[in-house]
Write a structure and sequence with these properties.
269 residues; two-stranded parallel sheet; 9 strands
Length: 269
Amino acid sequence: MATPTQQTEVRAVYGACRLGKSELNRLFSLAPEGIPAVSVAISTQRDSTRYSAGTLTGLIEHIRDANASGNLDPWDNLNLEAADNTGDRKITIKIDTGRVEVQVAGGDATWVHGQAARIDLLLKGAGGRNHAAEADRAAAASKDALPASIAVILLAGGLLLGWKVTDVGCARGVELFADMAMGTLIGAGPVALAGLAAFFFARRTNRARLTPTAEVPHGHWWHRASTTDKIALCALTVAILTFLATLTMNIINTEEHIAVPEKQAQQAR
């Protein structure tokens, strides 16, 4: 008859982790604390061969000494497995180019929750986002989006109704309103394009990275962007500002052109 057992398990998945040589060394030093070094295995699979060692440095050297084929700098997977002989402490970390999966288990509940919390802080410091927390935030944002959309529609309807009721829609008012609306619509396009470009630039620099043989930059996304990306974004910004300035001057000139005949007609009366 099997002996009854009880274990505590904590599992978490993180995305957008930017893990370079320093971050991985800290992670693999922190995670198996309390477990004998001989029970720690760090491994990766390249093509059909799996390489394993006790440390990240040892694994990198092992792959280079084994004359593995291809470029040795790109990595797409990395695992850590560690467990003591009693089964009280066990940890598994699986890393790929998109996410990090952490599972801590054992009969020592204090150690399990403590290690999970420490790893959580380390990965979030490397740009990681907990998938469960992100899902909760997305659900909350979707709930807030509907009332906000309804409020915007009601506000726009109220403004249009007020414009009609106050009889601003005379010929001059209609023409001025049309010019302002057209200018707003035309100007909103480039502004939206700039915002979209900035969003994709930020997303590009915030994407997950796995580079055990080199360091990865941290800080604001602008500081992590490549020189080419910075030049492209600056050029787009200048082009949009130039377009908006030209559009504004054309609207002003149009207004002045319309105002001159009106002034002459009033003087003739």
